[in-house]
Amino acid sequence: MLKDFRIRPPFFEIGPKAYLYGQAALDLAIEADRLCELYDVDIIYTPQAVDLRMIAAATRRLLVFAQHMDCIPIGKGIGSTLPEAVKATGAKGVLLNHAERRMSLGDLRRAIERADAIGLATLVCADDLAEARAVAMLRPNIVLAEPPGLIGSAGGGVESRDYVRTINEAIARIDPSIRVLHGAGIGSAEDVRAMIRLGAEATGCTSAIVRAPDPVRSMTEMIKALRETWDATR
Amino acid sequence: MLKDFRIRPPFFEIGPKAYLYGQAALDLAIEADRLCELYDVDIIYTPQAVDLRMIAAATRRLLVFAQHMDCIPIGKGIGSTLPEAVKATGAKGVLLNHAERRMSLGDLRRAIERADAIGLATLVCADDLAEARAVAMLRPNIVLAEPPGLIGSAGGGVESRDYVRTINEAIARIDPSIRVLHGAGIGSAEDVRAMIRLGAEATGCTSAIVRAPDPVRSMTEMIKALRETWDATR
Amino acid sequence: MLKDFRIRPPFFEIGPKAYLYGQAALDLAIEADRLCELYDVDIIYTPQAVDLRMIAAATRRLLVFAQHMDCIPIGKGIGSTLPEAVKATGAKGVLLNHAERRMSLGDLRRAIERADAIGLATLVCADDLAEARAVAMLRPNIVLAEPPGLIGSAGGGVESRDYVRTINEAIARIDPSIRVLHGAGIGSAEDVRAMIRLGAEATGCTSAIVRAPDPVRSMTEMIKALRETWDATR
Amino acid sequence: MLKDFRIRPPFFEIGPKAYLYGQAALDLAIEADRLCELYDVDIIYTPQAVDLRMIAAATRRLLVFAQHMDCIPIGKGIGSTLPEAVKATGAKGVLLNHAERRMSLGDLRRAIERADAIGLATLVCADDLAEARAVAMLRPNIVLAEPPGLIGSAGGGVESRDYVRTINEAIARIDPSIRVLHGAGIGSAEDVRAMIRLGAEATGCTSAIVRAPDPVRSMTEMIKALRETWDATR
């Protein structure tokens, strides 16, 4: 856990994955940055590695995170993403162990230790309660709980996700300073509201934003819903 | 093979691997770019993915190549390097199948086809004669022949590498428009001279440059040797 | 290419994959062995690694091949399949680079060299013409041409696969002693006939046999069709 | 955690890795089986997948475990090790996540759940305290604690491994029914004694047995030391 990293609930993660890159990823990031100020929420934004520096330079409050890094030492490693090289782009953190980029338990542990040492916050994916507890033992800054069966789903039924409180409580018992973000299948502002009402302090979205007819509008509605529901319920 | 890609012998590849990143990688790139003009040689430079855009923007003649790309479609793919995202940085090509980042035969074939389609030149590694011939069947722009046992070696004994002509001739028989770069264990300007005298039209270096007390001087001596030996022997 | 390996057209491959194991894989192998004699055809059978020894011991003419092997030296390697350990089971060869178990070009080259050295024949998968030519450069005993889009397909349309002769001719130009097996989507005896009429000297089947209501009958019909069509057309 | 699995301290693990296979692996297993009776200790033996059935059939009390399995469903999966196929060999369990065969956290969780469901005990590797606690969250039967830097080491200094009690206590707090085996760098009977005196209830050895001039003698001395030290200290 990076000690210097501060993020305040409610917060949000937007993941361009390999949907957006270059100018389109930059444009969306600039709008997201504006929303951070407008609604006073922290937003984590995870662009393609090649876009990290450009987006970090063009935004102020947005928390730019890498999608992955390889826990190799400085030296050999063609085709890798060196942690120090990520840090030097101005990125504030790194996403690790996403369902689309699994890491072994040992690599994950070492990557978190390395991130702590060089000054990157860690957002680590877990599929379910057992994995969330296992990940918490490695002390990341944030656990990202995403049941893989729900990733990219059409959303709906968010209000029945009773695992949200169970995971929150389990993580809090292990270390209350670890934050928990509940993602997967968030398709609308209504889903964001449902997630916050369920007890989540953070959520996020990829496909329903990047594939929307108007991504900025979709994103804006979600961030607005996040802030309003949080204020109404906490 | 990207049709629009033009590179003229003698040429050179400098691979920062995960040794150099950020400012140091940029500084070396700018010096390399200057050497392209000074000695009228093409230099391929393969920085970390996060540094591609910055280096492409700061150089004119340097051929900036990615170290790897993942042959995925636009869409999912957290932690991947999307080909289109590489292209959008201003990179001119991509290194594929390095000993530190092997690709399956199928992925390699698809990556070359994708690079051709979106406008990236391909520099594809092969360990020996059999692999060089196999790679040539996939029609890259350049085959990079590097016996893995010699990568990062102290150099020396370059003059005894009689495989250089054998590989050149085998590739020429398959497709004379495929260029061949002979690397691995090039430790000095003297090694560059030996390689060109052996019949290579291109060579390259990583560790002996990035780990030299004065990398710019080491690089400059090699590029000068490349040009002089080429002019003296061809 | 293992020099001592002899296989005569027409031949066939049956791949239990991870569908069949233990007693069911043994039972089917024993029936396949009987068909080898009955129709005088060579059949390659590729069971799970754990079943190799049992099946090799219970059959006489069946060519038992491993589904994969790891090209590691004797020593470390937990979870690997050591080539020497495969050989010691009585297996006659090894399947390499299947779409479900890709290998890097370098690993594939080394695995073929190792198989040659310890006495295992090699059956190496290729997706298309370019890959088939690349694989042929590594000199396996047999190239298994399987367009991945057709693997496990319902069959049908086999008669329109005009790539069969193209690949056969390309391989023959590289090395006429390399055999070529054309698989993928062979769903019935009729598909076997179509494949042989197209010019194939060998074909194979997995799902249409292992998922048939009566696998032995399905297999028998295919082997009978193989022999009859071969005799009628060659 | 497989409920039906019973193992009693002190116990031991012998890992032939890819050092031993076929007849030599069988011979050592038969001797190990004899030692189980002679010293009334449980011994886990992890041969190459191809040797599982033969060794399970030739031994009585020896706990034969696979070195790995792939958590795939019955169906596709060439080159995989299907869990059901492992079970059908007579194996009693499976080693997972060894430093030589890492698994992603998600694959590891699913493999443990699958092993529980089909009746295989699980022995899961962890590098250090943090990983051991993470693995314990997934509820395996046994955690195998092996600092990778010590694997294959010449042994020595075992008595200074103060992490042994720390890990034991941490696991016991999570679930006292999880057993803990402390391995890595056990080079002699003296090392076995030191490990048991440190508080371990189980240890194991690979290289110092398989590479000994007389493996059976080396193994016998270790098992004798295990039993005697246990009886003298518990």
Walk me through the structure.
The structure is a homotetramer of 234-residue chains. Chain A has 234 residues and is of the alpha/beta class. Helix content of chain A is 41%, strand content 15%. The longest helix of chain A has 19 residues, at 215-233. Chain A binds chain B through residues 15, 17-19, 21-23, 46, 48-54, 66-68, 72-82, 84-86, 88-89, 95, 98-101, 152, and chain B through 15, 17-19, 21-23, 46, 48-54, 66-68, 72-82, 84-86, 88-89, 95, 98-101, 152.
Shape of chain A: globular
Q: Level of helix content of chain A?
A: 40-55%
Largest sheet descriptor of chain A: 8 strands, parallel
Oligomer description: homotetramer
Task: Name the average pLDDT of chain A.
Answer: 95
Work out the number of β strands of chain A.
Answer: 8
How many distinct helices of chain A? 9
How much β-strand is present in the residues of chain A?
5-15%
Strand order of the largest sheet of chain A: 7-6-5-4-3-2-1-8
Whole-angstrom Rg of chain A: 16 Å
Q: Note poorly predicted spans of chain A.
A: none
Topology pattern of chain A, helix = H, strand = E: EHEHEHEHEHEHEHEHH
Largest interface in this structure = A-B, 40 and 40 residues
Structure class of chain A: alpha/beta
Distance between the termini of chain A: 26 Å
Topology:
Four copies of one chain form a homotetramer.
Chain A: E1 11-14, H1 22-39, E2 42-45, H2 52-58, E3 63-66, H3 83-87, E4 93-96, H4 105-118, E5 121-126, H5 129-136, E6 142-145, H6 163-174, E7 179-182, H7 189-197, E8 202-205, H8 207-210, H9 215-233
Parallel strand pairs in A: 1-2, 1-8, 2-3, 3-4, 4-5, 5-6, 6-7
